[in-house]
Design goal:
Distance between the termini: 28 Å
Strand order of the largest sheet: 1-2-3-4-5-6-7
Order of helices and strands: HEHHEEHEEEEH
Helix content: 25-40%
Number of helices: 5
Radius of gyration: 14 Å
Structural class: alpha+beta
Largest sheet: 7 strands, antiparallel
Number of strands: 7
Length: 150
């Protein structure tokens, strides 16, 4: 993660870091604990955009205060019929597509990441086994959604 975070600082658009108190407040609000990769990211920068600043950006890695259940961000409803309560948006791709973590599928120490498109949600596609893997692929994507064909 150290090399990836240094690249974000050097070549992209990071926000100032989150404090440990902000992370603790976030974890209390959502009821789950950040994994090691996400914690390292948020202690380094409380969100970032990759390749371009807002608003002309594909990868908007959300600040802690903007992380909400995917069903709320995508469908505007916080009810079970709108998708699992365990899905949380961590990246807004700015086109109705989100990258989410599923906190119910924590694999050991890592949270897996999934593509969640507004047209098909709550159906998702697994795109990375950890935030570090996602970040590595995103940074080498040339500003493209690396998980999409073509």
């Amino acid at each position: 993660m150290t090399t990836l975070l240094a690249e974000i600082s050097r070549l992209h658009y990071p926000r100032p870091p989150a404090s440990p108190a902000q992370i603790a407040a976030f974890e209390t609000r959502v009821g789950w604990v950040l994994d090691e990769d996400l914690r390292a990211f948020y202690l380094h920068c409380n969100g970032a955009t990759l390749f371009a600043p807002l608003p002309d950006v594909n990868y908007h890695l959300l600040p802690l205060e903007r992380i909400v259940r995917a069903r709320v961000a995508i469908l505007g409803r916080d009810e079970d019929g709108a998708g699992p309560a365990s899905h949380y948006c961590v990246v807004d791709m700015q086109d109705g597509d989100y990258v989410i973590v599923d906190v119910a599928q924590r694999a050991g120490a890592s949270l897996p990441l999934f593509d969640a498109w507004h047209e098909t949600y709550p159906a998702t596609k697994r795109i990375a086994s950890s935030f570090g893997e996602f970040l590595e692929k995103a940074l080498s994507s040339g500003n493209e959604s690396f998980w999409l064909d073509g």
